[in-house]
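Interim report, section 4.2 (structural modelling).
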Amino acid sequence: MTEQWRHLHPLTPWFRGGVTLVVLVGALLNLVRDHIFEAITFIQTQGALWLLLGVLAIAMAVTGYSLLWWHFARFRVGVDKVELKTGFIFRQRRSFRLDQLEAVDVVHPLVARLFGLAKLTLESAGGADSQLLLAYLRKSDAESIRAELLGRRATPLGQPPAPSGDLVSVATQTVTAAAADMFSPAATASAEERPLFQIPIRWTVRSFLRSPTPWGLAAATVAMVGVFIGLLFWMGPASLPSLVGLLSVVALAYRHFKNRLLDEAWFTAFTHPDGLRLRHGLTTTINQTIPARRIQAIRLTQSFWWRKPDWWRIEINVAGYGLSSKEVRTVLVPVADPTLAAVAIQAVMPEAVAPHTWALLDQAMHYDLRPAGFAGPSKRAGMLDPWTWCRNGYAASPFALVFRTHRFRRTVDLVPHDRIQQLHVTQGPLERRLGLANVLTLSMPGPIIPTMNHLDVAEAARLLAEEAPKAWFPQRVA
Amino acid sequence: MSDSPPATAGLFEPPGVVWQPAQPALLTVRLIGAGITAGIVLLVGVAAWLFWTEIWVAIIAFAAFAIAASQLVLIPRRVRALGWAIRDRDLFVKHGVLNRTLSVVPYTRVQYVDITVGPIERAFGLTTLQVNTAAVGTATAVPGLSPEQAAGLREILTDKSRLDPQP
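Predicted structure of the assembly:
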């Protein structure tokens, strides 16, 4: 049984129209601000009537549009989905699946609250637009729909259940706690935190010095200083504008220095019921929480000069509901040897350090040529990847797919089968001629898109055929 | 290399997959849309040339028009390359002529489905369906569906989740 299509609250168009009108008037005022005297002269000579008529016409147009919008906007709450139809020239109908519901929030904007109205937002995991917004509803309606949705969602299928209690409040608490931590550097260790590991400061410093970027930036800075001094002697004060170039290089160097050395110094991890707590930074302490069971993919990278100490940098894709990518730091550990890497990964994705999967990771990290258990591009890909075709490869454990790519900057990606969101196979014209194709495993937003480029067409087809059924399974609950 | 590249067709034509083509009317819709774009580009170009009357303006305007008009030639092949297939557990969508893409969307990953209808589409009884997962990037679009096809696909994409997750 499906329920009836319902209108949003009849006051909706007046609110939406009112907001649009305020924005328009604001823009108009901003426009005439610089020509205020001309505007006053215009009103004095032409009379205020025209101005009034103009404002009235805009107001009527906006109100008319809002009324039409409201007339065509309908929603219904079904058994397993919520649907919203909008638009009259370009029509849209969004069907939001309730088993993917991550959070339901009732929002009361100030003015709407005076009239007893509220907005209801339905959020799913993932990107910025992954929501359905019902605005405006009567406050009691919004709250009853929210209660109803939470009740229906009692048996989650696609996502792990929240540790305890109300799904929404838990999700909200996690986010607000994480956000609060990020903005209050002075946050101290809570009782529930237990120290897990700390990266020795000499590792941080040495790993920084063993990277090419700081040396490149230092060389660029020295060169710019030299050029500037040379110009100063040659042209005198006329050379001062070139200071801008020097300063921008210095700014770039400082930013790298701050990001990679100062902010990653004294990197400490604590275990916490909410997940992994990370605390780091020399000049400012940065706190963050990586929620347990929300890691979607892991990437380990090792630049050439890190090979001898066998250091790896670990980045992650996190399912971050309601957080913009800027706020989410995606570094799990800035520098770690394999033992420490295993400890860190164990804390956020224990299945990945289970024997079979860890053995694959270990091979992917340490073998120079493609290990025996790995499939990968054939010699045919040598035309496009002369250096890497014989190193690149992938292998599947019961838990995850492991990719290894690049020769000098070794990269190992891990994505659990049950956290692949979509699979893509792509092929450009040159690849078609060579009989090659690329396979991408799309995960939730983050820096990692595990990809195997330039596989033989047959190999790509095999990977797709094997992986598609595995990717179908809902995420297992740990 | 002695071995010749294998046939590519197999990759984008997996065995047992029955591809549904886009509705033929999509060709008309796309041609009209591209025609309107080309017309606007032409108008703007002519207006710019009348305003500035310099040869390089005419050259740029003509180049822009040529690019817009060349889309008209490519559209039939692009529409023919479109395809979608409902499978037991996932949706296959393919598109592209020069750069081909095959997307696999497992039903369990679908978060919400948008069905959009533009004014030209409505005149020809077509809709576009967009499947959204939590994945990076934009939605996977299935254009050129009849309203019945779109409704059927929406029901599959939003209800299959009720299936028992065990095989």
